[in-house]
Amino acid sequence: MNKRLYVVFMFFTLLFLQVFVLNNILFLGYINPYLYVAFVIFYPLKEERFSLLLFSFLLGLSVDFFTDSGGIHAFSLLFVAYIRLTLIKLVFKKSSLDYLLFDLNKEPYGKVFNFVMIIIITHHFLLFFLANFSFNNLTSVLTQTVYSSIFTAILFFLGNSLFRNKK
Fold first, then answer.
1. Where are the transmembrane segments (predicted)?
2. What is the pTM of this model?
3. Model confidence pLDDT, tens digit, residues 25-39
């Protein structure tokens, strides 16, 4: 599939899924999956960084628009999009020469798991910290971060195993 078409399809699919399905799921009053963070994880590494940041900002802003959350989704997603390249260098030990051949599905599962969890936990912590915006609620922020991250990761890995191209 064409890379641009893939990015646009992924953008609108994750936006629709997040806004109309996943935002209506709330377990125990504080567990909510935020699967739209998968956009940053699956965005092609061969693309320039500006387009990743732009699309991430627009996706987060779109989720903010539908949830009336004042920009916290845009900031959280933009931040993890910004640190993604650094995390790829640290977790996968890749250099800029390796980017052309980089495929997340061909990397060892342990490294992929670590990378995905770092992205998800960082995103969720920023999201919930900005939503509460107080150190007095730090235990609530950490609880929401842990449980929502686990739920998001389960959905991510289930979806990834279902929709992965079998070659």
1. 5-21, 27-45, 50-66, 72-92, 112-133, 145-163
2. 0.90
3. 777 777 788 999 999
Q: DSSP per residue over the chain, as a string? A: --HHHHHHHHHHHHHHHHHHTGGG--BTTTB---GGGHHHHHS-TTS-HHHHHHHHHHHHHHHHHHHT-TTHHHHHHHHHHHHHHHHHHHHH---GGGGGG--GGGS-HHHHHHHHHHHHHHHHHHHHHHHH--GGGHHHHHHHHHHHHHHHHHHHHHHHHHHSPP-
CA angle 67, 44, 122 (to 5 degrees): 50
> What is the tally of structural domains in the chain?
1
